[in-house]
Design brief:
The structure holds two protein chains of two kinds. By secondary structure, chain A is α/β, with parallel strands linked by helices. Helix content of chain A is 54%, strand content 7%. Chain A has a six-stranded mixed β-sheet, with helices on both faces. In chain A, helix 14 (229-256) runs parallel beside helix 16 (306-315). By secondary structure, chain B is of the alpha/beta class. Helices cover 51% and strands 13% of the residues of chain B. Chain B is built from 14 helices and nine strands. Chain B has helices at residues 8-17, 24-36, 50-61, 76-79, 85-101, 107-117, 127-133, 150-162, 193-198, 209-219, 225-239, 249-261, 269-279, 283-292; strands at residues 40-43, 64-69, 81-83, 123-125, 138-143, 164-167, 171-174, 180-185, 200-203. Chain B has a five-stranded parallel β-sheet with strand order 2-5-8-1-9, with helices on both faces. A two-stranded antiparallel sheet of chain B has the order 3-4. In chain B, helix 10 packs across helix 12 (249-261). The chains are: A alpha/beta, B alpha/beta. At the A-B interface, helix 2, helix 3, helix 12 and helix 14 of A face helix 2, helix 9, strand 9, helix 10 and helix 11 of B.
C-alpha cells in the first residue's frame, strides 16, 4: 500500500474495507456494522501510532481469539510498517547490525531482539524483527507457506544462540535463582518469537498461488496428518480450550435434561404458593451413562492424530461412567492411567516406548491387535459400552479385521470409527475403511480438529 | 455518554492511579468504550484481572459500580426487576381492612389499588434496571457472562443496543445516560455472534513481565524490586507448564506478600518449596511444578 504516506485519515475507510475483505476471505464473520464501528473508532485515536490503530481494529473487528492470527497477518499485509514503506533502506542502513555484512555476524540485532523479548514490548520487538527480516530476506514469493519461511528465517537467526544470549542477560540481572525457571521462560519467549515472525512474514507474502488459502486457514481446519511441527504446536494450543468448552457444553446439555412438564412435581411445588403453580417443574431426562472404550492406532501413519483424539475424549469423560483408553500398533496396551495422570496433550513418542505395543514389525495390524484386545480385555466390552476405534483402517496387506470388528459391534452398545484420512482416500490401496464402516454404528472422517470436535459431539 | 476519558494515554494514567496497570492495547479498548459508548467484552483465562478492570474504571472515574454476577439459571427477575410480591400482598390486605371499616367499594377502589400496587414503591430494582435508571455516571459490570443461559443473552442484547427496557405496568424506561458496560467471560461457552457484534472485544491475557512486576510493586510497596522480579519470573515459568490452574495475577501478588510476611527479601528454592501453596492450589500442579522446575521437596527442608 503506497497510500500509507499520504494523508492517512482520507484513506482510512478504504483500508478498513480492504482489511475486512481479507478477514472475510479467511472466514471471519465481520459485519458491516462492525466495519462502521472501526472507522468511527479510528477517528478517536492517533493514526500515527501503528499499535493504537491495530488495537482499535482488533477490538472492533475481531471478536474471537481463534481469529487472532489471521487478523495479525492481515493487518501486517494491509498496514505494512512505516519505516519500510516510506523510506526503504532506512531500517537496514540505520541499524547497527546492517553495516556488518555477515562476516562477523554483527551482534546488535541479536541483542535488540533479545532485549525486546525480555521486556515483552510489542513495538520494540516488531521493530527489531522487521530489521532482522530485512537483513536476512530471501525470496519470499516462491509460493511456500509462511511456516516454511519462518523455519528458514529462524535457522538463519540461529535460535540456539538467541537462547544462550537470553539466558545470559537473565543471569546478569538476577544472580542465582533457579536456572530451570529461566530456561522455561526463555523457551516460552522464543516460541513467541517464532509466532511473531511467522505473522510478519505471512503479511509480506504475496497473495495468490494457493499461498493465501494456506496461510489464511484456521488451525482447526488444517489436515492433522499433514501438519508440520510448528502447526502441531498451534493445534495443541487450540485443543485444550476446545476440549474444555466441549465438556462445559455437554455438561449443560446433560443438566438441562429433557422437555415437558412434570405435573406431579409441579403440583407439589405449587403448595408453597397456595396451590398456584408458580414454579413449573420440567421433567428430567435420566441420561444413560455408558462406558467408553477408546482404541487408538498409533502406528507411524496416524501417530500425530492419536493424541488429539485421546485428549478430546478424556475431556468429556464426565459424560461416561468410565473411560478406558488403549493404543495399538500390532500389539495393544492400556494407557488410561497415563492419560488421567497427565493433563495436556500426550506425546506420541512417549507412548511408543511402552512394552507390548510392537510385537511384530511396527506396522499396524488391526486383526492381530484387536484380537489381542478381545482376548485380554474382552470383558471390558459389554452391552453398556460405547467403543471408538480411531485409525486409518489400512491393512498393510495383512489379514482384514472385518470379523473382529463385527464381533466388537455385536458385543458393544455402539461402535464408532474415527478415520483421520479424508473420505476421498478411503478404500484406496490397502484401506478397508468402508468395509469396516459397514459394521460400525457410524464412521466419521476426522482429518481436522473441527471435524474431530464435531464427531465427538455427535457420539456423546 | 459522559466523557470518562479524553485519550488513550489519559485512560492509562487514570487507571494507573487506582493501582491497575494496563497495556496500551487494553487502554485503547477502555478508552474506545467510553468514546463510542459501546460495551466492552473482556475474554481471557481466569485470574487475569477482568473483573478488576471494571472496578478500576469505576474508581478512576468516580462512577458508581453496578455488578450483575451471572450464573446458570439467572433470570429476568434477578437481573432486571421484580415486583415486591409480599409488599403488594400486604398492601392489599391493609386495604381490605380499611375497606371493611369504611362503606364504599366498587371498581373505583380497584383501579386505585391496581395503580397503587404497580407503582415505583413496589418495584424491586435489579442490577440492569438500576444501571439504566441511575442519574449519576455508572459502570455496569456483567460478570462471567458465559455462565448465564442463552435466554439472558437475549435480554442483554435488547438492553445493550437500545439502553432501554419496557416494564408493562410502568412503560418504557430509557437510560438517562448510557452506562459504561463491561462484560467478562472465561469463554467456557461461545457467546452469541449477535452479542459479540455489539461489543468491543478485548482478550485479556497475563501481563508481560515488566508490567506484572510493576503491578506487584504498586500493590505491595514493601516488596523489593529484586523479589518482585524473582516472583514474577517463577510464576511465568509455572504458567508455561500446562497446569490445571495456572497462577493468576492476584496469586502472584499474594505470593510476593507471603514471602515478605515470612520475613524474607529474596526467593530461594527453600522458600519457594515452603510457600508453593500460595500460588498453586492443586496437588498435581504442585507435583508437576516441583518436578519440572526442580524445586526441592518440602521434606528435605526440615
Amino acid at each position: 500500500m503506497s497510500t500509507r504516506a499520504t494523508d492517512l485519515a482520507d484513506v482510512v475507510p478504504e483500508l478498513v474495507v480492504a482489511l475486512v475483505a481479507r478477514l472475510r476471505n479467511g472466514g471471519v464473520p465481520v459485519s458491516t456494522s462492525e466495519a462502521l464501528d472501526a472507522v468511527a473508532a479510528l477517528r478517536h485515536v492517533d493514526l500515527a501510532r501503528r499499535s493504537h490503530m491495530r488495537s482499535v481494529l482488533r477490538a472492533t473487528l475481531v471478536k474471537d481469539l481463534s481469529h487472532e492470527v489471521l487478523f495479525r497477518r492481515s493487518f501486517e499485509a494491509i498496514f505494512p510498517r512505516l519505516s519500510r514503506a516510506t523510506e526503504p533502506g532506512a531500517a537496514t542502513a540505520g541499524g547497527p547490525a546492517a553495516v556488518s555484512d555477515g562476516g562477523e555476524d554483527g551482534d546488535g540485532w541479536r541483542d535488540s531482539v533479545v532485549r525486546a523479548l525480555r521486556e515483552g514490548e510489542e513495538d520494540a520487538l516488531e521493530e527489531s524483527l522487521g530489521a532482522t527480516i530485512d537483513r536476512f530476506r530471501g525470496d519470499e514469493d516462491d509460493g511456500r507457506s509462511a511456516g516454511h519461511h519462518t523455519q528458514r528465517m529462524l535457522r538463519r537467526m540461529d535460535v540456539p544462540e538467541l537462547y544462550r544470549r537470553y539466558l545470559e542477560q537473565e543471569r546478569e540481572e538476577s544472580a542465582g535463582l533457579n536456572s530451570s525457571t529461566d530456561a522455561a521462560e526463555a523457551r516460552v519467549a522464543l516460541d513467541q518469537l517464532g509466532r511473531r515472525l511467522e505473522d510478519m512474514l505471512a503479511g509480506r507474502l504475496r497473495e495468490g498461488g494457493g499461498v493465501t488459502n494456506q496461510q489464511l486457514e484456521d488451525v482447526q481446519d488444517r489436515p492433522l496428518l499433514k501438519a508440520g511441527a510448528d502447526e502441531l504446536v498451534a493445534m495443541r494450543m487450540t485443543i485444550r480450550p476446545l476440549a474444555r468448552r466441549l465438556a462445559a457444553k455437554l455438561g449443560v446439555q446433560r443438566r438441562r435434561g429433557g422437555r415437558g412438564l412434570d405435573m406431579r412435581r409441579t403440583m407439589r411445588a405449587s403448595m408453597g404458593f397456595g396451590g398456584v403453580p408458580a414454579k413449573p417443574v420440567l421433567r428430567r431426562r435420566r441420561p444413560s451413562k455408558p462406558d467408553l472404550v477408546v482404541l487408538c492406532d498409533v502406528s507411524g501413519s496416524t501417530a500425530q492424530f492419536a493424541p488429539f483424539t485421546l485428549t478430546l475424549l478424556h475431556a468429556v469423560h464426565e459424560e461416561f461412567r468410565r473411560v478406558r483408553s488403549f493404543v495399538f500398533i500390532d500389539g495393544v496396551v492400556e494407557i488410561t492411567e497415563i492419560l488421567e495422570n497427565s493433563p495436556g496433550v500426550l506425546d506420541p513418542h512417549h507412548l511408543l516406548a511402552k512394552r507390548g505395543l510392537v510385537v511384530h514389525d511396527g506396522r499396524s495390524d488391526y486383526a492381530r491387535a484387536l484380537t489381542a484386545f478381545l482376548v485380554r480385555w474382552g470383558d471390558v466390552v459389554t452391552a453398556r459400552t460405547t467403543v471408538i476405534i480411531a485409525g486409518d483402517a489400512r491393512s498393510h496387506d495383512r489379514e482384514a479385521a472385518t470379523s473382529i470388528v463385527a464381533e466388537l459391534e455385536r458385543r458393544s452398545r455402539r461402535l464408532y470409527w474415527l478415520n483421520p484420512e479424508p473420505k476421498s482416500e478411503w478404500d484406496r490401496l490397502d484401506s478397508r475403511a468402508s468395509e469396516y464402516a459397514t459394521h460400525c454404528t457410524d464412521a466419521f472422517e476426522v482429518s481436522t480438529i473441527r471435524q474431530l470436535t464435531a464427531a465427538v459431539t455427535r457420539i456423546v | 455518554m459522559v466523557e470518562l476519558f479524553t485519550s488513550v494515554e489519559q485512560a492509562k494514567e487514570a487507571l494507573a492511579t487506582t493501582g491497575y496497570l494496563v497495556d496500551e492495547e487494553l487502554a485503547t479498548v477502555v478508552f474506545l468504550g467510553a468514546a463510542l459508548g459501546k460495551p466492552l467484552l473482556l475474554e481471557g483465562p481466569a485470574g487475569t484481572g477482568k473483573t478488576e478492570l471494571a472496578k478500576a474504571v469505576a474508581a478512576a472515574t468516580g462512577a458508581r459500580l453496578v455488578r450483575l454476577q451471572c450464573y446458570e439459571g439467572l433470570d429476568e427477575a434477578r437481573a432486571l426487576y421484580e415486583w415486591n410480591y409480599r409488599k403488594q400482598l400486604l398492601r392489599i390486605q391493609t386495604a381490605h381492612v380499611d375497606l371493611g371499616a369504611g362503606d364504599h367499594g366498587g371498581s373505583g377502589a380497584w383501579d386505585e389499588m391496581h395503580d397503587d400496587i404497580f407503582s415505583e414503591e413496589f418495584l424491586l430494582e435489579r442490577p440492569l434496571l438500576a444501571a439504566l435508571r441511575s442519574t449519576e455516571p455508572v459502570i455496569l459490570l456483567i460478570d462471567e457472562t458465559d455462565k448465564a443461559d442463552v435466554e439472558v443473552e437475549g435480554l442483554l442484547l435488547e438492553i445493550l443496543s437500545d439502553f432501554q427496557v419496557t416494564v408493562p405496568e410502568l412503560g418504557t424506561i430509557t437510560a438517562t445516560q448510557r452506562p459504561y458496560v463491561v462484560l467478562t467471560s472465561n469463554a467456557t461457552r461461545e457467546l452469541s455472534e449477535a452479542l459479540k457484534r455489539r461489543c468491543l472485544h478485548a482478550h485479556v491475557s497475563y501481563p508481560e513481565p515488566a508490567r506484572e512486576r510493576a503491578i506487584v510493586r504498586s500493590r505491595l510497596p514493601q516488596v523489593s524490586e529484586e523479589l518482585a522480579e524473582q516472583v514474577v519470573k517463577a510464576v511465568r515459568a509455572m504458567r508455561a507448564l500446562d497446569l490445571r490452574k495456572p497462577p493468576s495475577v492476584a496469586e502472584t501478588i499474594d505470593w510476593a506478600g507471603a514471602v515478605v510476611a515470612l520475613g524474607h527479601e529474596r526467593l530461594s528454592d527453600a522458600i519457594v518449596a515452603r510457600t508453593l501453596g500460595v500460588v498453586l492450589k492443586n496437588e498435581q500442579d504442585k507435583a508437576k511444578a516441583r518436578e519440572q522446575l526442580r524445586l526441592p521437596e518440602l521434606v528435605s527442608d526440615g
